[in-house]
Specification:
The protein is of the alpha+beta class and 84 residues long. The chain contains 2 helices and 3 strands.
Length: 84
């Protein structure tokens, strides 16, 4: 899970853990400057999540934008899946 320094960590962790998922979180601290990058979950901004999914052998990577109204998904092979 990559909340991109925004507000989604607690709610997304709750949903995923309720679904009995193991959850690893990156970029979890709240930062009004979003770690110095655009908090938009699109292909160009999800390199770290992609690398983390591949390195840890995760089934799925989920990123949310800063206010948690958009998702970006990385599959288990590191491919970006558009929310559209």
């Amino acid at each position: 899970l990559d909340p991109m320094f925004g507000v989604s960590q607690t709610c997304m962790q709750t949903v995923l853990m309720t679904a009995r998922c193991e959850v690893d979180v990156i970029n979890s601290r709240h930062d009004t400057m979003f770690g110095g990058r655009l908090p938009s979950p699109k292909l160009e901004t999800l390199h770290q999540l992609r690398q983390t999914v591949i390195e840890r052998g995760a089934d799925l990577g989920i990123a949310t934008d800063g206010d948690a109204d958009r998702l970006g998904i990385i599959d288990d092979e590191g491919n970006y899946l558009s929310a559209n």
